[in-house]
Design a protein that fits this description.
By secondary structure, the chain is α+β, with helices and mostly antiparallel strands. Helix content is about 35%, strand content about 20%. The chain contains 13 helices and 16 strands.
């Protein structure tokens, strides 16, 4: 039997860990659930929303998923705690899925692993640790920057009535996430195969021409491309949006979905979000062409380029150029464009020349704080946001890091 004192000590140890110390919301949520458990109460989603997250009495769980979002993340944080700091704790705290009741149990007994399994586990752990350190450093930097600017925690779910996203999910159609993967080919040598990503080769035609120009090389095109760096961070950001609207997503690569056999009718009847570089849009580029937007990569720098937008009020197109500045700084350009399909499906393109724009434009539309800045900069602070539009965003930063952003151009599209 685990008494009340030991339960409170268990709670205090968790709240004192690094992950919970830096997160007031999750600490408050866990404390609330433990208190209810000690008082033999069974908290409901409604009471949690009102008591912990300050929702009003009109809170509707079917429209606002904030409680489920935070519970999902809370369980992840508790699991991470017992995998690291709390693995030797005598009493463990657990919250079964589908419930809000806190359970206290004795530390589970783990079977001893074989030496071979133990060594394999250590290698996997080291690999995951290296990856997580890199990802954690990036998000800590982004969190610190956002916290400094806004003074609030960035982990807030997107509101169900958010002007940008509510119109995107205004139908019951399935959602597909298209990732613009890099063209990948293999060069066979005597004792090994080399897998190569050449950013100047992005289509079958360019690969065929390169292959003819190098008849001495044994080259073979891979059916599936290489995932770009931005996709790791973009998926994390977009998960907040998808979870907020209770949407599942099908993930496809443009190298596969937009192959030579692609027909525009293949994407009818589904909402589509594209993330990646302009060069990897492939046949999905028809969306930008139809709204009068074109782009051109620089001949001198494969990560820079210009964007041209056809404007009815002027004979000459409106031009934007990304540039390399002094001291290793850059200006990158990204496009956020949305149009309706013939069956009222929504197509959203999130594309950039280099990684700073490809990463940051997804981040700023996946966060309630930065979305408000978009509304202010586009003049839609107190208005409904257009369902179809073109937006050009300038991202300032280093080669792989975004430091600041601003909307350079916005145009609602009227059919």
């Amino acid at each position: 039997m685990i008494d009340k004192t030991r339960k409170l000590l268990t709670l205090q140890k968790i709240l004192s860990s690094k992950d919970f110390k830096s997160s007031d919301k999750y600490s408050a949520l866990l404390s609330y659930l433990v208190k209810a458990s000690l008082e033999h109460k069974r908290p409901k989603e409604y009471s949690i929303a009102v008591d912990v997250f300050g929702r009003d009495k009109n809170f509707n769980p079917s429209e606002d998923t904030i409680v489920r979002y935070y519970m999902y993340r809370l369980r992840q944080k508790i699991t991470a705690y017992y995998e690291q700091d709390g693995q030797n704790d005598e009493v463990w705290l657990t919250i079964p899925k589908g419930h809000y009741d806190v359970k206290f149990i004795p530390r589970p007994k783990h079977k001893k692993k074989s030496r071979r399994a133990h060594l394999f586990g250590n290698r996997i752990y080291i690999l995951l640790l290296i990856i997580s350190m890199g990802v954690s450093f990036y998000f800590y930097f982004q969190y610190a920057r956002l916290k400094e600017v806004a003074g609030v925690h960035p982990d807030m779910a997107i509101a169900h009535d958010d002007p940008f996203w509510s119109s995107f999910f205004d139908n019951s159609l399935p959602t597909t996430l298209l990732i613009g993967d890099h063209f990948l080919y293999k060069e066979k040598e005597q004792d090994r195969d080399k897998f190569i990503v050449d950013y100047r080769i992005n289509t079958n035609g360019e690969f065929v021409r390169y292959k003819k120009a190098h008849p001495d090389k044994k080259l073979e095109k891979m059916e599936q491309g290489s995932l770009p760096l931005n996709s790791i961070f973009n998926l994390n950001d977009l998960s907040r949006v998808l979870h907020s609207f209770n949407r599942k997503v099908n993930i496809k690569l443009t190298s596969v979905a937009m192959s030579s056999q692609f027909d525009v009718t293949d994407i009818a009847g589904q909402n589509i979000i594209y993330i990646g570089g302009f060069r990897n849009l492939r046949k999905f580029n028809f969306v930008l062409e139809n709204i009068g937007l074109s782009y051109k990569y620089s001949d001198e720098d494969i990560w820079r380029g210009t964007i041209s937008i056809r404007d009815e009020k002027s004979k000459d197109p409106i031009m934007f150029k990304s540039e390399k500045l002094k001291d290793g700084y850059y200006t990158d350009l990204g496009v956020i464009a949305r149009v309706r399909g013939s069956k009222m499906e929504n197509y959203l393109i999130l594309a950039g020349f280099a990684y700073p724009a490809q990463i940051d434009i997804v981040r700023i539309i996946s966060n309630s704080i930065t979305l408000k800045k978009i509304y202010e900069q586009t003049g839609y602070r107190n208005k409904s946001f257009p369902s179809e539009f073109i937006m050009v965003v300038q991202v300032d930063g280093l080669e792989y890091s975004a430091l600041d952003w601003r909307v350079k151009y916005f145009k609602p599209l009227v059919k």
